[in-house]
Amino acid sequence: MVMRKTELILQEVQKAVVGKDEQAKKILMTMLAKGHVLLEDIPGVGKTMMAAAFAKAMQLETKRIQFTVDVLPSDVVGFSMIDAKSGELQFHKGAVFCNIFLADEINRTSSKTQAALLEVMEEGQVTIDGYTQKVPSPFTVIATQNPFGSAGTQLLPESQLDRFTICLHMGYPTQEEEVEILKRKQTPASYEVQPVISACDMLEMQKECEQVYIHEHLLIYIVELLNATRNHASIYQGASPRAGISLVNMAKASAYLNGRDYVVPKDIVYVFQDVIAHRIHIKQDNGNIQKKTQILNEILLSITPPKAEKSK
């Protein structure tokens, strides 16, 4: 029954986004893992549409901010002001008080506004003038950003990137997929996304995902992979301990989505690139930047994974 719910979610998302089944699957896994998603690519390849489709399919409260240079931190998290009648300080909620917060083109706003998301992404709460309030559960940030170097963009700080569980790239559609996109635009009502689960359903699935078993041998394997990023000759900043936590949670979500109650090595390998690539920084080698994917593949090949363990 639970697997049927996940299939229904993906089916609805696929109505809106053509040919990005792997990306959709990994976004769902991130939500099951209580994480946050960064979608990075050029404009017009469906980043915002993907995020909006998940929001509609899950019948969750969704809010969206189109980030620009004039968006303030108070627009995101809220602000306090004196009530004229009572004379008391009242807190006015910002856009993050929802289940899915869509931060569109997050790298077009100021660093100060970007930093307003740090607490809520890590702790699920907002603190303004000493007043702390939890955001609703479930809570996920789905942020989109254009490649650095596009007009009006600036790099996200390290602390911000590290709070995104995964970073995905959409890529161009194939010729067949692009024809299908154009066909669907002729009859948009036929492909309207319908809600198939509630917030309670998602909370229940998140709880079940947490209970997926991962053997200590696999935890050791994950730590070995992390250490390899820290000691690799071509990497000057390796993955953080938070990256290891994200890798564990995403591996559990992979197992859960595949109908298992235990993690196997292929779950870790499947999400390794998406969890780690945006967290590391590579050196120049003879004036050429090595591709992160190549380096991370080297690391995966250099460490032998343990055998799968079903139980304690």
From TrEMBL:
Domain ATPase AAA-3: 36-165
GO molecular function term, any single one: ATP binding
InterPro entries per the UniProt record, alphabetical: ATPase_AAA-3 (IPR011703), CbbQ/NirQ/NorQ/GpvN (IPR050764), ChlI/MoxR_AAA_lid (IPR041628), P-loop_NTPase (IPR027417)
Top-rank taxon, per record: Bacteria
Residue ranges annotated for the ChlI/MoxR AAA lid domain, each copy included: 228-299
One Pfam family per UniProt: AAA_3
Protein name in the entry: ATPase
Origin species: Amedibacterium intestinale
